[in-house]
Specification:
CATH topology of the largest domain: Immunoglobulin-like
Helix content: 40-55%
Shape: elongated
Number of helices: 9
CATH architecture of the largest domain: Sandwich
Structural class: alpha+beta
Number of domains: 3
CATH class of the largest domain: Mainly Beta
Order of helices and strands: HHEEEHEEEEEEEHHHHHH
Oligomer: single chain
């Protein structure tokens, strides 16, 4: 627990809710008090000299050029102060890097512009995506309290258990940052950085990507829900059951034939949440960066080419592979929507079975 009481001043460092955040807060306050003490002494002496040794008081300036004793003193004293500051700082840094004996390991993968969480040894994983309504982003509706800090699926961890994070990236450099945990680790493609936390308080904690990662860097929030251990265990069981249910549902969808209206409705929802960040809500894209979907060759060409690029992405571009992010029916719906929205009007209705054949 922190040695120093937390203040309510918003300009001070947050105390946080984890063992490490408490250590970081204590270190911050220790260094702050040392610096304040040094400042009081130095500026106090300066103020005294200015007031009582000014020319108008008849003071005569000292006539000397060096003092070995003073030089030794102002070398040794700062050295001792730095050592006193370095000891707690080093201890805290070592503790921050000690990810051993973790009771739960979560792989955190950043990509433009979302996070993926994979629970090791649990066979549970999901994407966490910004859920702020588009109307708020476009200034068409009032912004709520958690504007740009809300997601469809938060990361869930247990309280009072040590949780290790393995942080990496699929594309560019991101940074996974949750201030309440005092955790901030760069997500580098091809590398894994480790961090850990042990949250002592149940609640919902928010963070953001802290590394400029492209156009929608500010649309990549982090939400972590801390549950009591018993509630977390029940949540994990429910997630495993949902995964099994989703697998059976995906198999059943292969034999379903949806109407054009059903595909367009579902496809529009998926497009807004997964595709609009790059290709824009109106499908016009960003010239030179993200291609337009209005009358483009991929839209007007064979549907199989369109499905393949959504399934497998396109090398050398920002186009991601969605084969592991969306179900066959979801891909069928979004492809149908793209081929019939914004005046494209291909008239084609893609079904889940069509997608499954190309994803063998």
């Amino acid at each position: 627990m922190p040695i120093f009481p937390a203040t309510s001043m918003p300009l001070n460092m947050t105390q946080g809710v984890s063992a490490i955040s408490g250590k970081v807060y204590d270190l911050h306050m220790t260094i702050l008090y040392i610096c304040c003490a040094i400042g009081l002494i130095v500026f106090g002496i300066m103020l005294y000299a200015i007031i009582y040794h000014r020319k108008s008081k008849g003071a005569s300036p000292a006539q000397f050029h060096e003092s070995t004793k003073v030089e030794i003193a102002w070398t040794i004293i700062p050295f001792i102060i730095l050592i006193l500051m370095a000891i707690p700082a080093t201890t805290t840094l070592i503790a921050m890097e000690d990810t051993s004996d973790a009771e739960l390991t979560v792989k955190v993968t950043g990509s433009q512009w979302k996070w993926h969480y994979q629970y090791f040894d649990q066979d549970v994983g999901f994407y966490s995506i910004l859920s702020t309504p588009r109307d708020q982003i476009d200034n068409l509706a009032p912004k709520d309290q958690h504007y740009l800090l809300e997601v469809d699926k938060p990361l869930v961890i247990p309280a009072h258990r040590k949780v290790r994070f393995l942080v990496t990236s699929e594309d560019v450099i991101h940074s996974w940052w949750v201030p309440a945990f005092a955790v901030k680790k760069d997500a580098n493609p091809g590398f894994i950085n480790e961090a850990w936390t042990r949250a002592d308080k149940v609640g919902i904690y928010r963070g953001q990507c802290a590394e400029l990662c492209g156009k929608d860097h500010g649309f990549m929030p982090i939400v972590v829900e801390v549950m009591e251990p018993e509630a977390f265990d029940q949540w994990m069981i429910a997630q495993q059951a949902l995964k099994a249910q989703a697998s059976e549902q995906a198999k059943a969808q292969l034999s379903q034939t949806l109407t054009m209206a059903e595909l367009m409705t579902q496809g529009e929802q998926i497009y807004v949440s997964r595709c609009a960040a790059c290709h824009q809500p109106n499908g016009a894209g960003l010239p030179g960066v993200f291609p337009s979907l209005i009358g483009s060759p991929i839209i007007k060409g064979p549907a199989t080419n369109h499905i393949n690029i959504v399934l497998h992405g396109k090398a050398g571009t920002a186009m991601q592979a969605f084969s592991k992010q969306l179900s066959a029916q979801e891909i069928a719906a979004v492809v149908t929507f793209e081929r019939n929205a914004w005046g494209n009007n291909s008239g084609e209705a893609i079904q889940a079975a069509d997608v499954s054949k190309l994803n063998q």
